[in-house]
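Example record

The entry below shows one chain as it appears in the dataset: sequence first, then structure tokens.
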Amino acid sequence: MDVQITWENPATTIYIEAKYGSKLSASTSNNDGQHGFPADQLIRNVRVGLHECGYYKTPRLFESTKRNFAVLVLSPERGQPLVTTYRNEATLRTSIPHSEKIEQFPAAPFVGELGYPDIL
């Protein structure tokens, strides 16, 4: 991700993946999809954010509360196909390894996009 914004009251984390002259990468470092799950930049950001914000049910040394979470793609124009794909909860769940450890997702829609005109 290019930008992480966090604040409290309510506890919230937002990841922003900014694109200018390129599209979202289809694969990431050390992951080209060989394990049968998508390996693109957006799903990686979603997985990391869900883990960081407490949505995975895993043993922890200290209890913590879930944070609100959203991931945004910022690009010259709206219409990123992966955003549409991962807004579907069923598709999202099948795209995440060990998704059975995620009891619930953040309030929908938590995968979104902004085009440069939206900022203007």
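Notes for this example: The chain is about 25% helix and 20% strand. Strands lie at 3-7, 12-18, 68-75, 111-115.
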